[in-house]
């Protein structure tokens, strides 16, 4: 009788690593989709930064909803960071925009926009933890100071690129270890995820015409 080899998971397989954190790609990519849809709802008549703000809000909302609904996680506002936290209060997820190295194995990414002191503090806590904590172990939670010190805060880092009539969102779930001058300079762990692809870019409805500049004389 032929003995078939036992399938051994790829050491750095993203699905295995996501499962160890209690999540799935199926919970993360819908957040990217929702963000892209929200981004496209902004027109040139909206205030500047509307598209990015809407995308961020949907990223947070969907990543929370998917984990609350399917895994029993809780909303968490931790040190001004909008997160979702596992029931054991050991792992939390947030979102951030990354630069051109996002999702690339060779070079570590940086966040695209400067982060506040809260990200620096959670990175310091991440770095101080010696090893990954056991991961299988109202919808809002408040952490004690002791729990906060043991919490790993991961970020779904994403970078969108338009090419032709498609949008490619490079992404990874990563654990910052150091923040310098508002930018992540070191990651403790990175889980590279498949590129998320969307097509059908439709220009938002606008009322025509371009911008005008009305000179205002000084008096």
From TrEMBL:
Q: Which domain of life is it from?
A: Bacteria
What's this protein's name?
Uncharacterized protein
Question: What is the species of this protein?
Answer: Streptomyces chrestomyceticus JCM 4735
Source species taxonomy: Bacteria, Bacillati, Actinomycetota, Actinomycetes, Kitasatosporales
């Amino acid at each position: 009788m032929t003995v078939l080899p036992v399938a051994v998971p790829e050491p750095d397989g993203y699905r295995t690593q996501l499962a160890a954190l209690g999540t799935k790609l199926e919970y993360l990519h819908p957040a990217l989709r929702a963000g892209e849809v929200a981004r496209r709802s902004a027109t040139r008549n909206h205030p500047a930064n509307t598209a990015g703000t809407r995308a961020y809000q949907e990223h947070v909302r969907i990543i929370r909803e998917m984990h609350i609904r399917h895994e029993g996680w809780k909303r968490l506002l931790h040190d001004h960071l909008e997160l979702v936290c596992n029931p054991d209060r050991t792992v939390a997820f947030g979102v951030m925009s990354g630069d051109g190295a996002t999702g690339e194995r060779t070079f570590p990414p940086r966040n695209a926009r400067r982060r506040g002191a809260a990200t620096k503090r959670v990175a310091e806590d991440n770095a101080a933890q010696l090893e990954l904590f056991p991961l299988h172990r109202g919808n809002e939670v408040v952490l004690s100071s002791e729990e906060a010190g043991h919490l790993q805060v991961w970020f779904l880092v994403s970078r969108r690129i338009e090419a032709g009539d498609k949008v490619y969102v490079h992404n990874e779930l990563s654990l910052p270890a150091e923040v310098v001058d508002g930018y992540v300079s070191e990651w403790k762990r990175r889980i590279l995820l498949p590129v998320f692809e969307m097509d059908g870019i439709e220009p938002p409805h606008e009322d025509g015409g371009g911008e005008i500049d009305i000179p205002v004389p000084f008096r």
